[in-house]
From TrEMBL:
Domain Glucose-methanol-choline oxidoreductase N-terminal, chain residue ranges per copy: 91-105
One Pfam family named in its UniProt record: GMC_oxred_N
Membership in a protein family: Belongs to the GMC oxidoreductase family.
Co-factor(s): FAD
Name of protein: Glucose-methanol-choline oxidoreductase
InterPro entries named among the record's database cross-references: FAD/NAD-bd_sf, GMC_OxRdtase, GMC_OxRdtase_N, GMC_OxRtase_C
Protein's organism: Actinoplanes friuliensis DSM 7358
Keywords: FAD, Flavoprotein
Record GO terms (molecular function): flavin adenine dinucleotide binding; oxidoreductase activity, acting on CH-OH group of donors
Keyword Flavoprotein (UniProt): yes
Keyword Membrane in record: no
UniProt lineage: Bacteria, Bacillati, Actinomycetota, Actinomycetes, Micromonosporales
């Protein structure tokens, strides 16, 4: 705010730079998962049965029509038959692999993996998109931060007790406390990057250590919003036990490399001005990381994946699924999860994934999205 960035109660919005407390999925001081929010309440319905601890191995087809799934249950193998249709929602990494194991995918990939083809769909497993970012670690001077609540076994015990008794302290926040949506440079029209402020620093700033630093510190992470780099994920064999071939494709376009360097510089500029400059000093990556090549190397070798993978069963004219989320080349089969997003959202992906679930519900029930 001191640097002219407006603070908002709700981070969501568009068009202008903004900073806000991170929105959290929390109810009564504990994490509210999608299962708790939606599924658990729905279990009272007579037409819903949840089969837990099961792994879907394959979709069963009659020709190109999906008729059910083959599942490994705690009691052994089982088959479930679908009266209407099969909805795949195994996530961006698993949905394409499940389709491929079932014979839906690029004919060359299926042939190399030893899977008989049911339907050719070359888009399956392609177009993998992910935020790629990196962090700055800062040592605080005269400001406490939260490392001291986590660093020793005694401190962790006190922090746990505080959380259990009062739902407050370091364990009551979601890691990242404050988010900012910024422009990487004054030349761009609108926000194109996100910055994440975490009131804890860890000694392995690249994720090699999960322990809090002994001194007071904070971590400031960033990533560009909408990468154009794409990767892929494909099977290497017919069973779920064959490891997939994952190509992340990070920073493979000039757009992403330029934006990443600009975003890195914008964050450092913020940290080199007050209020940060008078309260904190950068301990990582340090001054040796400043020219374009060293920034890109740092982001690739010591950065983080935003856990926002999307796109491997993308919507679109050339995509794996059509506008109604139906898998091209098949009947009675849809995908409804983050894998259908053709590009990354300008923000985190859990809320958009839930929105996809809502819209999929409308499409299945009413044949169209209901506003
Ligand atoms: C560590 C981490 C932190 C994240 N933090 C945030 C955050 O702070 N904010 C945010 O907005 N987003 C965050 N995300 C991203 C967000 O969680 C995802 O975008 C979202 O969960 C995607 O939803 P989905 O339904 O596509 O997939 P998922 O939530 O992954 O659901 C897929 C489900 O399918 C199951 N499954 C897979 N294969 C099979 C199979 N063969 N048989 C049976 N079940 C199967 C999986 O176990 C999983 O439960 C984070 C992700 C990770 C991994």
């Amino acid at each position: 705010m001191q640097q002219g960035i407006s603070a908002f109660e709700d981070l969501n919005g568009s068009g202008h730079e903004r900073v806000a407390y991170a929105p959290l999925s929390v109810a009564g001081g504990t994490r509210m998962s999608a299962a708790r929010a939606y599924l658990h309440r729905a279990t009272r319905r007579p037409n819903l049965r949840l089969e837990l601890h099961c792994e879907v191995r394959r979709i069963i087809f009659d020709g190109t029509t999906a008729t059910g799934v083959e599942v490994m249950t705690p009691d052994g193998e089982a088959r479930f038959t679908a009266r209407r249709e099969v909805i795949v929602c195994a996530g961006t990494m698993e949905s394409p692999l499940l389709l491929e194991r079932s014979g839906v995918g690029d004919p060359d990939v299926l042939a190399a993996g030893g899977v008989p083809m049911v339907a050719a769909n070359p888009a399956v497993g392609e177009n993998l998109r992910q935020h790629r970012g990196a962090v700055f670690a800062l040592r605080l001077r005269g400001v406490p931060g939260r490392n001291r609540e986590l660093v020793t076994p005694a401190a962790r015990l006190r922090t746990t007790a505080r959380y259990l008794l009062r739902r407050s302290g370091a364990l009551a926040h979601g890691g990242t406390t404050v988010l900012a949506v910024l422009r990487s440079s004054p030349a761009v029209a609108g926000p194109d990057m996100e910055v994440l402020f975490t009131p804890v620093s860890v000694s392995g700033h690249d994720g090699t250590s999960a322990g809090a630093d002994a001194g007071d510190g904070v971590t400031v992470g960033f990533y560009p919003h909408a990468p154009t780099s794409t990767g892929s994920i494909h099977l290497t064999g017919p069973s779920a036990h064959h490891p997939p071939r994952l190509v992340p494709g990070y920073l493979s376009t000039g757009h992403d490399r330029d934006l990443t360097v600009a975003a890195f510089r914008r964050v450092r500029q913020i940290l080199e001005a007050d209020p940060f400059a008078s309260a904190a000093s950068e301990t990582a990556p340090g001054p040796q990381v400043s020219d374009d090549d060293s920034v890109l190397r740092y982001v690739l070798e010591h950065g983080f994946a935003g856990n926002h993978q999307v796109g491997t069963c993308a919507l679109g004219p050339e995509g794996a699924v059509d506008d109604d989320l139906r898998v091209r080349g098949t009947q009675r089969l849809r995908v409804a999860d983050a894998s259908v997003m053709p590009t990354l959202t300008t923000g985190n992906t859990v809320a958009p994934s839930m929105a996809i679930g809502w819209i999929a519900g409308d499409l299945i029930r009413h044949g169209k999205a209901v506003a």
